[in-house]
């Protein structure tokens, strides 16, 4: 088989699997590399003229405020620091390396290199956020232009670019809903947020953080969000509806406009979590379904890299009626100059320092500007095509199903179930994922706890070729076959990873867990200071 | 470190199923089943589970002689430690109960048993919550939540548990169906009790959002319910561990499989519950006692707190029979508080909840959508059908 | 050149018509439209969105974006004395090199088996922060220092079950706004007056305000206005006496020379990692940290991810995973839990690289160097007639308030004049802290040389004259 891999991509119409092995450097913890006296970087020395004038400047600190011992940081020379981290980076699978369709709901699409390059310009990186406005007209214009684009994509009237990522944007929606009802004197009465079980769980979590009670709707018998259930629970206590659509199952709620109407009739607001918008760019818009608020994740739909979990950006759109509540400041244009408007007395205030993750915003702007309206629509259509192709191929694997709205097409992702395979072989979804890692791809089950049994969530986006999708399916088909013929192999996976199976028990044991090296040395190795 | 597992096989479990007898309870039925050509399955199924335990280092399997366990272990070439004595071919429920007690006394870490709902009930009656147990499904009736989905999974889970790789234990429902009634076409499950089973939520950590444990979910929903309880009111508490969490929060003890009535009273001294405290008015109440309570206090200040039965979604009519149609009618739908951990609801998927109180009018009243308290300030909406 | 047929975009491989056709055929569908069957017609957008025409080639795109950015004048093209939460420091090239690696930059939420490197790099980050902070538990970064402070207070509220936080009166108003919004239904935020002479927290007021309702006492070191709050031990003791949690926000760049808050009694320490090797990015380079002692009750209140080290089945091999994955805290009793999501992991890795490069000596030198320049700048500015500096009589680190009341000019006027001389003057505080009159918050760091500070002094002297 290995010979074939070298010469042919396919055997009998099925892609050959790679002889992948993840990098394994056995890299020590950086403290173990420390050698006393080595320096990784020097800082500018204090010039004699300054020294002369100020003398022993630390003497102004009261004794109790002076650090007694330098921090016990590792001491390494520069090449060794670089090498250590480059090795760690090799033990990491970015989207740049793998067919990253396995982290469904995360929209792991291609992050164009040109956009990273543009954002690394000193004309972005070396800007202080409090500079005089006349010195930042360029970046303000980028932000302003990007807001106009978002308005067109969603139909909303204004956007705040401030929140740091998706959940922060969802929280912002909840805070605006709270402010709206407070202004109307109904903040105590309207304390319930309605969501659906297949909306991203941050909708419930963020609304709860903002002090709301949460009511969760389950799907109806056909697998769609249950309109009758919604009608049964809306009341004068309803503050709002916060939902994802398409849901994390990839199912689009065909009664979405009616959902909005029912909540509006009850006096609530509707916030649209558009984390799953990749398949509907240019197809349908939040405003047209009647929503008052919406948000996009720039690190998902708008291609900016995920950075191992941030920085991302979440942008919040509002209708005219709610613009007054958006976080301060907003970027304005008076026909000649761009400026930051802080004079917004009804605003909920600040969500984060300054104006948002500006380099992320710049990358997202560049992405849209490289595609245009036709390109965005193609993004959506091909993402949906890829997803339904993957669905078609996945359902050919015995033991795989796509529960809820069975037999229907999906938008840009699918939550699959391996329940059939598990019942037959005793192999579980997570174990399939760990075995898939042996072939160099990510795989994600789904948010816990699971409603779909033995789930996995795949989202192929527009970035992957048909061949790559075939390869991903071939990997899962191969693992499923192994589950039948050699389940031990799957059960004991991964075999080709940087590390072997982790013993998780210490991570849940307060006497053994260690979140820092110093804690580890003290608790596990019995060294260091008590 | 030596690990000690107990194994009990109910050799006649499952006998009735294949020959259409809807159960195997009682020697008469077993005899009839064998006459009809039934082949005992339980030993084989137990062996398939034990097979999965081979990899556990230094394992000692304690079991009863012959078809009650030893045969299954030897079938796969292992040698058990055999205790007790039985008459081969004539084992009884009493043997099962005695075996369970002896294994408890010999301090096995986990008791694996092969059987059905009847076996689970026997083990519950023998040892209650003294010991973690896990069922290998081998019976005709598997309504109880104490069974793994198949023998192999039972073995895998047991192996993980014995090697300290399972997060926790939880109390799961032992259900029992009156076989005689089923043979006459009436399905009538009742809650027989609870057994403590190991459970695992996942093999590896893979989600992006931290979750709270079932224990935390219980405390959280209990806090929500107790916060809303009003002084002077009576609360009819249905059976189950979910409702028991509310009793715990109130600082009272509760009959696990029975219905209790508590009253909330003002008490400035109370440390728990902001100047209120609960007192048990009736423990393990019967329908008659509930009706007489309602007659005394009227229905204005009475609420019912119930949970659904895990895995099947029954709200009324199975296991909480003292809360009868007449009680429900008087208290009214608006005074019913349904509680459930999110996990229990998730396990139902989009299958609706159901009621079968025996009174179609009351069933009708309960149909529609109902809110289920799932945590502090958290509710789910579920459809109820009858 | 004009194109024939549909656009084949380099980012969308399957837009090639033949491939598209083949895939549709395999699925058994005629048109992509069929996939959208669940979207009602009345919600469908007809025609294309009205977006600006795209720049399809990279060079056109670059020209467009760089054309816009050319209108910016950066902090290193002029002389900048802006701080107030975002700081200009030396960013080692290795920091950029590492955070640009595609393996880190484009990864997300994989298992430790796919993404061991990310887990180890973040564990090392928290470990080095732990040394700097003298604390055993540090989270995977949250969004920014504002979020870290707000979450720290809510953790305190959950820990104590109490409804109020006492916050130093000199906190920046933007941060206060964030905290107020975030804590709105969980706790009341009350400001403790400060001593107008020293800026320090007024302990008499604190004693009067603190009670068994107080969940947390919060202050900052160095404070937003640049002085060092030297009563940390007394404030912490007072908090503890009343069963409250002491929360301190700290600038990590100061900790080579200034005592870490844990040493004077802080229970929860928070702050922002932007100063540690991360470019300012117009305010887009923030990441928040929260640190505590290794006590279960604290650990259970973190909403953030916590990475721990764990053995694997191969002896000696390091593995990593989430600590206390099922947080069994009864946090639900608080009115609302918090969430965890995408935040600032890449900046955490970057800050780790920075601390590894700096080492103990680097952190001592940078701290001392910043203080020396701060004192030099204050001394030079103090020579100018009509300029009161520092406004507060207390030790300072990095930032200081310059009061310009006696010059008869506003900060805005002065800053405009400084800008004309190629200088970004200090942040105008006149709206944020009206009680300080016409005051500005100046910031210096290791990037400033003696002649930069002299140039500032000369320019300011000219301008106020």
Instruction: Tell me the total number of β-strands of chain B.
Output: 16
Topology pattern of chain B, helix = H, strand = E: EHHEHEHEHEHEHEHEHEEHEEHEHEHEE
User: Given this structure, which CATH class of the largest domain in chain B is correct?
Assistant: Alpha Beta
Quaternary structure type: heterotrimer
Low-confidence stretches of chain B: 202-211
Could you say which structural class the secondary elements and strand pairing of chain C correspond to? alpha/beta
Based on secondary structure, the structural category of chain B is: alpha/beta
CATH first level of the largest domain in chain C: which class?
Alpha Beta
Order of helices and strands of chain C: HHEHHHEHEHEHEHEEEHEEHEHEEEH
Largest sheet composition of chain B: 9 strands, mixed
* Tally of separate domains of chain C: 3
Q: What radius of gyration of chain C results from the CA coordinates?
A: 26 Å
Main attributes of the structure:
heterotrimer, A: 530 residues, alpha/beta, Aspartate Aminotransferase, domain 1, Aspartate Aminotransferase, domain 2, seven-stranded mixed sheet, two-stranded antiparallel ribbon, 13 strands, globular, B: 386 residues, Rossmann fold, 2 domains, nine-stranded mixed sheet, five-stranded parallel sheet, 13 helices
Describe the overall structure.
The complex is a heterotrimer of chains A (530), B (386) and C (465). Chain A is α/β, with parallel strands linked by helices and 530 residues long. Chain A has helices at 2-7, 48-54, 78-90, 113-119, 122-125, 137-154, 166-183, 202-209, 227-233, 256-265, 320-323, 358-369, 372-394, 419-425, 429-436, 466-485, 487-491, 517-523, and strands at 10-11, 14-15, 158-160, 192-196, 213-217, 238-244, 269-273, 293-297, 314-318, 330-333, 338-341, 414-417, 455-458. In chain A, strands 3-9-8-7-6-4-5 form a 7-stranded mixed beta sheet, with helices on both faces. In chain A, strands 1-2 form a two-stranded antiparallel sheet. Chain A has a two-stranded antiparallel sheet with strand order 10-11. Chain B folds into 2 domains: 3-199, Rossmann fold, CATH 3.40.50; 214-385, no CATH class. In chain B, the strands form 3 sheets. Chain B has a 9-stranded mixed beta sheet with strand order 10-9-8-11-13-15-16-14-12, with helices on both faces. A 5-stranded parallel beta sheet of chain B has the order 3-2-1-4-5, sandwiched between helices. A two-stranded antiparallel sheet of chain B has the order 6-7. With 465 residues, chain C is an alpha/beta fold. Chain C folds into 3 domains: 13-69, no CATH class; 79-87 and 362-464, Aspartate Aminotransferase, domain 1, CATH 3.90.1150.10; 93-354, Aspartate Aminotransferase, domain 2, CATH 3.40.640.10. In chain C, the strands form 4 sheets. Chain C has a 7-stranded mixed beta sheet with strand order 2-8-7-6-5-3-4, with helices on both faces. Chain C is globular and about 80 Å long. In chain C, 65% of the residues are buried. Chains in contact: A-B, A-C, B-C. Chains A and C meet through helix 2, helix 3, helix 4, helix 5 and helix 6 of A and helix 1, helix 2, helix 3, helix 4 and helix 5 of C. Strand 5 (213-217) of chain A pairs parallel with strand 16 (378-385) of chain B, so a sheet runs across the interface.
């Amino acid at each position: 088989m290995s010979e074939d891999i070298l010469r042919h991509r396919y055997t009998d119409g099925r892609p050959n699997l790679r002889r992948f092995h993840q990098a394994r450097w056995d890299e020590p913890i950086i403290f173990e590399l420390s050698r006393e006296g080595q320096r990784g970087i020097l800082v500018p020395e204090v010039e004699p003229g300054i020294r002369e004038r100020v003398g022993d400047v630390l003497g102004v600190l009261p004794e109790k405020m002076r650090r007694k011992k330098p921090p016990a940081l590792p001491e390494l020379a520069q090449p060794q620091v670089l090498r250590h981290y480059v090795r760690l980076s090799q033990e990491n699978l970015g989207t740049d390396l793998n067919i990253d369709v396995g982290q469904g709901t995360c929209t792991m699409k291609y992050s164009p290199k040109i956009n990273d390059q543009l954002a690394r310009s000193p004309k972005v990186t070396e800007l202080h956020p409090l500079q005089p406005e006349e010195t930042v007209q360029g970046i303000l214009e980028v932000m302003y232009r990007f807001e106009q684009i978002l308005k067109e994509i969603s139909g909303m009237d204004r956007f705040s670019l401030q929140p740091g990522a998706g959940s922060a944007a969802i929280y912002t929606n909840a805070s605006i809903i709270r402010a709206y009802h407070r202004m109307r004197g109904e903040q105590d009465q309207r304390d319930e947020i309605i969501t659906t079980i297949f909306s991203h769980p941050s909708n419930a979590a963020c609304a709860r953080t903002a002090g709301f009670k949460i009511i969760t709707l389950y799907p109806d018998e056909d697998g769609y969000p249950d309109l009758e259930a919604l009608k049964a629970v809306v009341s004068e206590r309803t503050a709002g509806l916060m939902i994802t659509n398409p849901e994390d199952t990839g199912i689009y709620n065909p009664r979405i406009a009616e959902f909005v109407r029912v909540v509006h009739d009850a006096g609530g607001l509707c916030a649209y979590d558009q984390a799953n918008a990749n398949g509907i760019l240019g197809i349908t818009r939040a405003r047209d379904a009647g929503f008052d608020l919406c948000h996009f994740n720039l690190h998902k739909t708008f291609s900016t890299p995920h950075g191992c979990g941030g920085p991302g950006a979440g942008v919040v759109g509002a209708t005219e009626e709610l613009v007054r509540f958006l976080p301060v400041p907003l970027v304005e244009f008076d026909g000649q100059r761009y400026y930051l408007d802080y004079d917004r007395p009804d605003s909920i205030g600040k969500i984060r320092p300054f104006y948002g993750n500006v380099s992320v915003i710049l990358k997202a702007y560049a992405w849209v500007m490289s595609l245009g309206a036709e390109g965005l629509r193609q993004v959506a259509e091909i993402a949906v095509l890829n997803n339904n192709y993957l669905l078609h191929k996945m359902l050919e694997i015995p033991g795989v199903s796509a529960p809820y709205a069975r037999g229907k097409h999906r938008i840009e992702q699918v939550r699959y179930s391996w329940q059939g395979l598990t019942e037959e072989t005793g192999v579980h979804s997570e174990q399939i994922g760990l075995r898939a890692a042996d072939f160099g791809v990510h795989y994600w089950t789904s948010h816990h706890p699971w409603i779909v049994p033995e789930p996995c969530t795949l989202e192929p986006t527009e970035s992957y070729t048909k061949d790559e999708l075939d390869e991903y399916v071939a990997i899962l088909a191969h693992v499923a076959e192994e589950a039948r013929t050699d389940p031990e192999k799957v059960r004991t996976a991964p075999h080709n990873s940087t590390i072997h199976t982790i013993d998780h028990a210490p991570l849940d044991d307060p006497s053994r867990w260690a979140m820092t090296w110093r804690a580890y040395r003290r608790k596990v190795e019995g060294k260091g200071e008590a | 470190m030596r690990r000690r597992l107990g194994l009990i096989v109910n050799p006649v479990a499952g006998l009735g199923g294949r020959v259409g007898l809807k159960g195997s309870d009682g020697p008469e039925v077993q005899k009839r089943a064998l006459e009809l050509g039934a082949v005992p399955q339980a030993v084989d199924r137990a062996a398939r589970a034990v097979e999965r335990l081979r990899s556990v280092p230094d394992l000692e399997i304690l079991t009863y002689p012959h078809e009650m366990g030893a045969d299954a272990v030897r079938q796969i070439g292992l040698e058990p430690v055999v205790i007790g004595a039985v008459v081969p071919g004539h084992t009884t429920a009493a043997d099962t109960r005695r075996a369970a007690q002896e294994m408890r006394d010999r301090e096995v870490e986990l008791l694996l048993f092969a059987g059905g709902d009847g076996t689970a009930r026997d083990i519950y009656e023998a040892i209650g919550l003294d010991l973690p147990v896990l069922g290998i499904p081998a019976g005709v009736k598997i309504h109880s939540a104490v069974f793994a989905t198949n023998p192999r999974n039972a073995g895998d889970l047991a192996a993980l548990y014995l090697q300290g790789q399972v997060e926790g234990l939880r109390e799961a429902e032992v259900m029992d169906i009156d076989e005689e009634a089923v043979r006459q076409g009436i399905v009538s499950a009742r809650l027989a009790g609870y057994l403590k089973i190991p459970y695992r939520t996942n093999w590896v950590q893979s989600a992006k959002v931290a979750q709270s444990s079932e224990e935390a979910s219980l405390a959280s929903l209990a806090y929500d319910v107790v916060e809303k309880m009003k002084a002077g009111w009576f609360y009819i508490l249905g059976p189950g561990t979910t409702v028991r969490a509310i009793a715990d929060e109130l600082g009272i003890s509760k009959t696990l499989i029975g219905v209790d009535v508590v009253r909330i009273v003002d008490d400035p001294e109370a440390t728990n519950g902001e100047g209120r405290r609960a007192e048990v008015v009736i423990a393990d109440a019967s329908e008659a006692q509930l009706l007489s309570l309602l007659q005394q206090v009227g229905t204005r200040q009475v609420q019912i707190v119930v949970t659904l039965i895990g895995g099947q979604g029954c709200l009324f009519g199975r296991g909480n029979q003292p809360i009868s149609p007449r009680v429900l009618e008087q208290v009214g739908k608006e005074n019913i508080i349904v509680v459930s951990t999110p996990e229990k609801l998730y396990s139902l998927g989009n299958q609706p909840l159901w009621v079968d109180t025996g009174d179609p009018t009351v069933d009708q009243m309960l149909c529609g959508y109902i809110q289920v308290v799932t945590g502090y300030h958290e509710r789910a909406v579920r459809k109820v059908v009858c | 050149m004009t194109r024939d047929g549909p656009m084949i975009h380099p980012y969308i491989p399957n837009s090639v018509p033949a491939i598209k056709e083949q895939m549709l055929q395999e699925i058994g569908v005629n048109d992509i439209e069929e996939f959208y069957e669940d979207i009602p017609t009345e919600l469908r957008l007809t025609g294309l969105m009205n977006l600006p025409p795209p720049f399809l080639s990279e060079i056109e795109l670059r020209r467009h974006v760089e054309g816009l950015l050319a209108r910016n004048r950066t902090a290193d093209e002029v002389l900048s004395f802006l701080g107030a939460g975002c700081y200009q420091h030396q960013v080692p090239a290795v920091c950029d090199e590492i955070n640009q690696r595609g393996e880190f930059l484009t990864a997300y939420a994989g298992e430790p088996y796919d993404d061991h490197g990310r887990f180890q790099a973040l564990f090392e980050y928290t470990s080095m922060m732990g040394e700097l902070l003298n604390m055993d538990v540090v989270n995977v970064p949250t969004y920014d220092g504002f979020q870290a402070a707000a979450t720290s207070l809510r953790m305190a509220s959950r820990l104590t079950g109490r409804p109020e936080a006492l916050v130093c009166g000199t906190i920046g108003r933007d941060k206060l706004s964030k905290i107020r919004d975030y804590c709105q239904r969980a706790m009341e935020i009350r400001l403790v007056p400060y001593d107008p002479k020293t800026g320090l927290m007024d302990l008499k007021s604190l004693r009067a305000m603190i009670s068994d309702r107080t969940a947390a006492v919060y202050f900052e070191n160095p404070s937003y206005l640049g002085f060092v709050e030297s009563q940390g031990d007394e404030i912490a003791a007072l908090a503890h006496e009343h069963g409250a949690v002491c929360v301190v926000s700290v600038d990590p760049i100061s900790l080579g020379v200034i005592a870490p808050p844990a040493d004077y009694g802080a229970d929860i320490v928070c702050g922002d990692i932007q100063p540690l090797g991360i470019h300012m990015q117009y305010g887009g380079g923030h990441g928040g940290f929260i640190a505590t002692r290794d006590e279960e009750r604290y650990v259970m209140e973190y909403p953030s991810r916590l990475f721990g080290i764990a053995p694997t089945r191969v002896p000696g091999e390091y593995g990593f995973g989430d600590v206390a994955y099922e947080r069994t805290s009864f946090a639900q009793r608080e009115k609302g839990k918090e969430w965890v999501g995408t935040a600032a992991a890449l900046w955490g890795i970057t800050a780790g690289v920075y601390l590894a490069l700096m080492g103990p000596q680097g952190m001592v030198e940078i701290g001392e160097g910043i203080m020396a320049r701060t004192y030099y700048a204050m001394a030079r500015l103090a020579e100018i007639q009509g300029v009161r500096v520092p406004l507060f009589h207390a030790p300072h680190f990095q930032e200081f308030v310059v009061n310009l009341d006696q010059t008869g000019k506003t900060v805005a006027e002065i800053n405009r004049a400084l800008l004309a001389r190629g200088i970004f003057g200090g942040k105008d505080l006149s709206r944020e802290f009206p009680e300080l009159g016409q005051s500005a918050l100046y910031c210096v760091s290791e990037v400033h040389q003696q002649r930069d500070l002299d140039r500032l002094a000369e320019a300011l002297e000219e301008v106020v004259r």
